[in-house]
Amino acid sequence: MNTKKILVLTGGGDAPGLNAVIRGICKRARRESITGAKWEVYGSIEAFNGVLNEPQELIKLTSKRVAGIHVKGGTILKTTNKGNPLKFPIQQVDGTFQFKDRTDELVNKLKNLNFEAIINIGGDGSQKISQALFEKGLPLVGVPKTIDNDLSATDLTFGFQTAVQIATDSFDKLVTTAESHHRVMIMEVMGRDAGWIALHTAIAGGAEICLIPEIPYDINKLVKKIDLRYKKGRGFVNIVVAEGAKPKAGNITSSSGEKGSEHVRLGGVAFQLSSQLKKAGCQAEIRETVLGHVQRGGTPTAFDRVLASLFGVKAFELVLEQNFGRMVSFKNNTITSVSLKEAIQDYNYLKPDSYLVQSAKGLGISFGD
Ligand code: F6P
């Protein structure tokens, strides 16, 4: 009987649940092989670099290789944010980088490898690559991934819940010091241009203030809110700030991207906020914590394992149906799919008039607006 091959890869930042998707695809493919055509699953190391590199780095994902990997963080296929085939970074002799479109080369190489389909697990950047390659004739299926939950075509992405749980556990630990020392504790979380991680953490932890990119803050309003908490003497305040938050008439806090990366690197807003508060007259003692990559690390929560496993199964089923150019999605409590085109159309911002923001206000959380 003819053996059919598919290729799986993970691109962009790692997120807890990637391995559960890979295992889900392999398990579903194996079940299909019992009754139907024989399927083999291969993985490309470091996103599409595994195909572009010479020699190529492709591994066969045997049962043994994927056994038990759903509980592990990271990705067994490795990943990179410096391998976008649409804008591939090429280092020049002077150390600077120029970006080159290598999609035609990639498409040719993939066609020669005779894969029945390619499953690209990644965030918005990766799915833009998926769409471009699909338009060039590749049989492609996307699986959404990101701790930021910033993809609009799916209600949730795996990795997000794990990040929120880690951030909430950390927040709970900081409350101890806030209460004991009567301090203002600022905790900075990830999320890029969306405040999903910040707001969920603020609600779960019981923060007094939550600052998100979608609602620029007024520093004087924050000082007022903090003063109120100290009015009767020993107050304390817990603040969650999203890395992409900014003051009204101000900018995001970023450092230049890493060499060869297309992205600016966010981070450090907790320290900016701290100094802005002091300048605006805040008398309380302030401490800052930047959570960073611990939010992306370790084992996925049970929920993320389930979501990721279901995404893996669905991705393989889209391949079986030859339903290409689509991204798996979780909508209205069911696993479905949307066109890649639709998937990359809009960024998933938190809407200031959403039930989530309004309920947080109902809980007394200030956004500084
Ligand atoms: O998109 C996931 C994310 O963790 C963001 O929240 C964060 O801004 C970024 O990736 C960090 O990227 P890197 O790991 O390249 O520093």
Which features would summarize this protein structure in a list?
369 residues, alpha/beta, Rossmann fold, 2 domains, 7-stranded mixed β-sheet, 4-stranded parallel β-sheet, 12 helices, elongated, binds 6-O-phosphono-beta-D-fructofuranose
Explain the overall architecture:
- The chain has 369 residues and is of the alpha/beta class.
- The chain has 2 domains: 3-158 and 300-343, Rossmann fold, CATH 3.40.50.450; 162-296, Rossmann fold, CATH 3.40.50.460.
- Helices cover 37% and strands 20% of the residues.
- It contains 12 helices and 15 strands.
- The strands form 4 sheets. The protein has a 7-stranded mixed β-sheet, sandwiched between helices.
- Helix 1 (18-35) crosses helix 10 and helix 6 (160-181) crosses helix 7.
- The chain is elongated and about 80 Å long.
- The N and C termini lie far apart (65 Å).
- The mean pLDDT is 96.
- 6-O-phosphono-beta-D-fructofuranose binds next to strand 12.
| SSE class | alpha/beta
Order of SSEs: EHEHEHEEHEHEHEHEHEEEHEHEEHH
**Using DSSP, what is the number of strands?**
15
Low-confidence stretches: none
Task: Give a list of the ligands.
Answer: 6-O-phosphono-beta-D-fructofuranose
